[in-house]
Each structure stands twice: as C-alpha cells, then as structure tokens.
Design brief:
The protein is α/β, with parallel strands linked by helices. It is built from 4 helices and 5 strands.
Length: 116
C-alpha cells in the first residue's frame, strides 16, 4: 500500500469548479443527507464488487474520491491506484466541500443538504 504522504491528494479549493469525476464512498445515509451533484455513489465496502461502474468516467481525468473527512476516501484511493486506476483523494472530504461553498443536494426534497 501507498503511504499517506505518497497518496495523490487534492484540496477542495483546488478542484475544478465544473463537472469532475467524483466518487463518494460514504454510507447510504450520509449520501442521502447531502452530496455533490453529479457524484457517483459507491460505499467503500462495496467498491471492490462495483469498481467496473467507474468505467462511466472519462479516461483522460483522474477519479476524485471523497468521503466525510478524508479517511475512507484515502483507503479507496490507495486501493484504486493499486488496481490500476488514476485516483486522487479529496482532502477534508465533504466537510471541506461544504465549507468551500461547493454545491450540494439532498435525497430528501424538503431538507437542506448537510454533511453527517
């Protein structure tokens, strides 16, 4: 495995503002409470069985991986890179995403999106 210092990482503030290949590896309840529009949701525990779903992302860009705070996404990023993918961990996760004022949506129509 790659050491945390060698793991490709990006700060939310440095991510492009337009659509990026974003993989959210949080659990279903976290996703439902609030997530980035256009993100792909595959909980970390399901990633090995569902990794082929990432083929919908463009080949010419890395897959940015996000969770709540950066721990689970770091594990997913390390696994993806070891499996031949070009993956980048999003430092600070959805907490940083919300703090930077990036757009979020909720699966609950009458509820403001939040990071849980």
């Amino acid at each position: 495995m790659v050491s945390p210092a060698e793991l490709p990482t990006a700060e939310v503030r440095d991510l492009p503002k337009d659509s990026i290949p974003l993989l959210d590896v949080r659990e279903d309840d976290e996703w439902a409470a609030g997530h980035a529009p256009g993100a792909k949701h595959i909980p970390l525990g399901e990633l090995p069985a569902r990794v082929d779903e990432l083929s919908e992302f463009p080949d010419d860009q890395p897959v940015y991986v996000i969770c709540r705070s950066g721990g689970r996404s770091a594990r997913a990023t390390a696994w993806l890179n070891a499996s031949g993918w070009d993956a980048v961990n999003v430092a600070g996760g959805m907490g940083s995403w919300a703090h930077e004022g990036r757009p979020m949506v909720s699966d609950h129509p009458d509820t403001e999106p939040e990071v849980i």
